[in-house]
Predict the 3D structure of the following.
Amino acid sequence: MRIKLDENLPAILVDLLREFGHDAETSPDEGLTGQPDEAIWAAASAASRFLMTQDLDFSDIRKFAPGTHPGILLIRLDHPSRTSIIDRIRQILCNENLEEWKGCVVVATRHKIRVRAP
């Protein structure tokens, strides 16, 4: 799966995603550090990349209606430390098929995953 990591996620996740066979890049890889959400979204959409982020602005399903984009994974942890984010993404990669989330808006908390499918 083609994935873009927002700048609010640890860049080391690129290596983890690649270990699981995904084509991953970060927003900073494209010089998008500090850019508005619209620029991040435009870059992810133009490259048909599933966006992983912690940014709540991407949770609005009226604006990001399932089925109208490559997909979004919103990580929402109570205590989003670097380690806890990496651990949660690792759990997701080990237990979920990300391909099934294409076009979906997915919210992952510490213990739950909610999928809004098209």
In short: The first strand starts at residue 2 and ends at 5. The chain has a mean pLDDT of 95.
